[in-house]
Amino acid sequence: MSNVATINTGTAVAMSDDELIGVLQNSLYPGASINSVRLVLGYCNAARLDPMQKPVHIVPMWDKNSKSTRDVVMPGIGLYRTQAARSGQYAGVTEPEFGEDINEDVGGVRMTYPKWCKVTVKRQLDNGAVVEFTASEFWKENYATAGKDSEAPNAMWKKRPYAQLAKCAEAQALRKAFPEVGSAPTADEMEGKEVEYEGSSTDGNGKKAEQKAEALPAYPAEQMKANKPTWVAAIKAGTNTPAGIIAKISSRYTLDEGQKREILNLGAIEGEAEIMAKPEDIAAMRERAEAATISEAAILKHLNVESFDNLTMKQLDQADAYINNPV
Description:
Elements: E1 4-8, E2 12-16, H1 17-25, H2 34-47, E3 56-63, E4 68-75, H3 77-86, E5 90-93, E6 97-98, E7 101-106, E8 109-114, E9 116-124, E10 130-138, H4 139-142, H5 155-159, H6 161-177, H7 187-190, E11 194-195, E12 199-202, E13 208-211, H8 221-237, H9 242-250, H10 257-264, H11 279-291, H12 296-303, H13 313-324
Parallel strand pairs: 3-11
Antiparallel strand pairs: 1-2, 3-4, 5-9, 6-9, 7-8, 9-10, 12-13
């Protein structure tokens, strides 16, 4: 980094790196280390952003590789809102719609929280048409915990369970409507989560060292069989979802595709979820689409999904219908 930084705030302001770091530490990022603020400046310089607008946040995250907490710089939802507005095609956003209230103990803390939240972002296309992009997020799948070994929500998610979930849903809707603004999750979505990576890093002597994530043990079949009645009851009561169960197990164990599909199908026991399509059925559908010269992007748009992962049989039928009659 150079010794002089220029802030793009309408009037060029030149100051040394130390001065700028001091300003940020004592205003927008109180308590942050110098190295973390340098990460913010590096991110903003690379993306040509004004650091004084606080487009990014410093998020402490548990690093499973180094077994320690480290700061990660992540975009805030304000940055996605700004970039969408600057596109000239942002046509507004709906007020968040919440699901029913859930009252239960979460990690020993009595909570009242919304089961889900739905937000729709509107984009005006070049031909004048306004297209809506809706995202739904579940509280149980998004809330940040108070610590890596805790199931209790942290202070912010305890204090603002509705507002925090609404920001997560809006961020997802913004990414669906404006994929060009980026695919990185926001600070609100990743707070309290774990970071894991593979690849090269630098040891204490500045030399390259290979780091590889530790393999998690396979989830025991006996344990899965014993837990299924509890999961079904939780899904029926609306206190958990198949996706939430998979996410929790995956933080400690490795689930194979058959186990994941079995959990996803648990909702069908109570009629609350569709039967999931098998990977081979999805692969066959993709072959039919290729033979009919129908692009996968067109099918994904028709289904309003981001990928073919975890399609339901109903969605698979809809995809086949579209391949046969793409109107």
